[in-house]
Amino acid sequence: MPKHFLTILDIPKDEAKQVLLRAKEMKDDNVRTDLLAGKTLLMIFDKASTRTRVSFEVGVRHLGGDPVFIASKDSQLGRSEPLKDAARVLSRYADGLIVRTFGQENLETLVEYGDIPVVNALTDEYHPCQIMADMLTMYERTPKLEDIKVAWVGDGNNMAHSFINGAVTFGYQLSLACPNGYEPDEEILAKARGLGAVISLSDDPSEAVSGADYVHTDVWASMGQEEEQKKREKAFAGYEVNGALMAKAAADAKFMHCLPAHRGEEVSEAVFESPASIVWDQAENRLHMQKAILEWIYT
Ligand code: CP
Ligand code: NVA
């Protein structure tokens, strides 16, 4: 049976720590291997990407494999070829699928009908590669992840859901502040709490960031929600991560953002460009962490 990475919870807790340590080693030692020699990984993207696309293409090459990128709109998928058909065809050509799509159920269809590993490169529900990379970025500064407080200020979106899952696996305390009507999915939250995660949810950014070691945010309108931008700007008023908000976090708190960022909306220019902002390390760590995730899948 192939291993898949659809959410953080697909990696057993004890193995997740090993993946994290391996990602750090991959980074420190600038690791190149031939693990994927002779293997082709197809990258099927329904949505735009800079970091995820490039870090996977580079990472697959660092492991000796060949990435092949397909923008769905340029393929028959963009003309309604059923995913369950594509899954069976592509399984005969390639050794893995790295997929950015809308509904999580699309990935589940690829798993059900294909017989090669499937990696979630972002869905409407989750962004697990990003949050695993964020774990590395926080771990580099505070190795005891179970002792830190992570604040999420903004939309209860794919990023928030993966932070919720990450709290199960890595044991940090998570405080979310989301406007009314933009909270994370109740089932995802309830499941994580049931698995022991310590997570608070309010509509008060000050409460969420109080004493936090890391303050995370994301765009107010995700890909696919562009026409809601104006409505969301109203709903998210007061949710900008600015100097006044960061002052309520822990003394040496860091600001993080998966990028791309909208300065003047979810984050002020001053915070984004401040010494507290570690967004470039965060973006770099996508490469190292994804190499470690691929190694977990293919070893
Ligand atoms: N953070 C992230 O996933 O960026 P891209 O959309 O550029 O891949
Ligand atoms: N929540 C954002 C993340 C982009 C990396 C989106 O889904 O568009």
From TrEMBL:
The top EC class is transferase
Its predominant location is: cytoplasm
PROSITE patterns from the UniProt entry: CARBAMOYLTRANSFERASE
Alphabetized, the UniProt keywords read: Cytoplasm, Transferase
Q: Where is the Aspartate/ornithine carbamoyltransferase Asp/Orn-binding domain?
A: 146-296
E.C. no: 2.1.3.3
Which named protein is this? Ornithine carbamoyltransferase
Organism of origin: Pseudodesulfovibrio sediminis
Name of encoding gene: argF
